[in-house]
């Protein structure tokens, strides 16, 4: 049996970090998934004047303060991308590439998903469309696979899949020097639509088409509705109450993913509430045992 945490936090922006601080203070066994570089969006702010106590700092300056704080609290960020989360009754199973994590409760602090789904992406999810190429690559041994990569990390997944696939295409959604194996065909074009019958068989691009058995879309983050089956979404955000509870028992959410305004101080406050609500939830299930 794998290690089971009290709380798993998905996201390392202000909401996720604030939740982690409070989980730590309440002595809960928790894990936080994200990036040790924290939020890319945070660093881009030229100046922040609406965060109490942080007047005149740049986003980079606030990020440095956040990093100092979590370091002082001995909080480590686990750099794994969570691809799916399943409610299993007494716990949640969090799937990350070749690993599975378990937690009695979860806090979603994934930020806002800025990339709209490709036409047909949601329709063919699980029928040729996936978000983890290394997980599902063995299913497409000797077949044609297309990878749409939104970041440099996607190149490593493409290289791995190229060992198994018969033919592989890589479509980068960013500009850079690409570190790809010789047997990978680079296509610099914009994906428009995924089509098929019972499963994927073609990807339509702006200037071309690809006949393909699978399309893996490797984004920085996956929209919450796709990440957690059964999660209630309203107007493209996770539906929560004032205690940051979602419609799934033991699942909480905070930050930009639950709605506007998209502000750091609002996210941090919601992360605090989500952690306190998760602690209360844990106490209630422990009493009922």
TrEMBL record:
Pfam families reported for this sequence: Pyr_redox_2
Annotated FAD/NAD(P)-binding domain residues: 5-149, 183-271
InterPro entries per record: FAD/NAD-bd_sf, FAD/NAD-binding_dom, Ferredoxin-NADP_redctase_2
Xref: PANTHER family: THIOREDOXIN REDUCTASE 1-RELATED-RELATED (PTHR48105)
Domain of life, source organism: Bacteria
Protein name: Thioredoxin reductase
UniProt keyword terms in alphabetical order: Flavoprotein, Oxidoreductase
Molecular function in Gene Ontology: oxidoreductase activity
Organism per entry: Clostridium sartagoforme AAU1
């Amino acid at each position: 049996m794998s290690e089971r945490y009290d709380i798993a936090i998905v996201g390392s922006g202000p909401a996720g970090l604030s939740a982690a601080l409070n989980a730590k203070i309440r002595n809960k066994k928790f894990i936080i998934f994200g990036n040790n570089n924290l939020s890319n969006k945070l660093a881009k702010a030229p100046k922040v004047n609406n965060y109490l106590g942080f007047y005149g700092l740049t986003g980079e300056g606030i990020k440095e303060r956040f990093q100092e704080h979590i370091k002082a609290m001995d909080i480590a960020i686990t750099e794994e991308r969570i691809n799916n989360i399943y409610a299993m009754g007494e716990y949640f199973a969090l799937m990350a590439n070749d690993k599975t994590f378990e937690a009695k409760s979860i806090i979603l602090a994934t930020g806002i998903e800025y990339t709209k789904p490709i036409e047909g992406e949601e329709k063919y999810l699980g029928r040729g469309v996936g978000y983890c190429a290394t997980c599902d690559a063995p299913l497409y041994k000797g077949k044609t696979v297309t990878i749409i990569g939104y970041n440099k990390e996607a190149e490593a997944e493409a290289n791995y899949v190229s060992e198994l696939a018969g033919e592989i295409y890589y479509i980068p959604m960013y500009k850079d020097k690409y570190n790809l194996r010789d047997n990978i065909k680079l296509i610099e074009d914009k994906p428009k639509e995924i089509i098929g019958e019972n499963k994927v068989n073609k990807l339509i691009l702006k200037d071309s088409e690809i006949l393909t058995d699978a399309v893996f879309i490797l984004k920085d983050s996956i929209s919450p509705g796709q990440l957690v089956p059964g999660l209630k979404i309203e107007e493209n955000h996770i539906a929560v109450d004032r205690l940051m509870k979602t419609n799934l028992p033991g699942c909480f959410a905070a930050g930009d993913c639950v709605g506007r305004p998209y502000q750091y101080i609002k996210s941090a406050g919601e992360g605090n509430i989500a952690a306190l609500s998760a602690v209360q939830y844990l106490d209630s299930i422990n009493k009922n045992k």
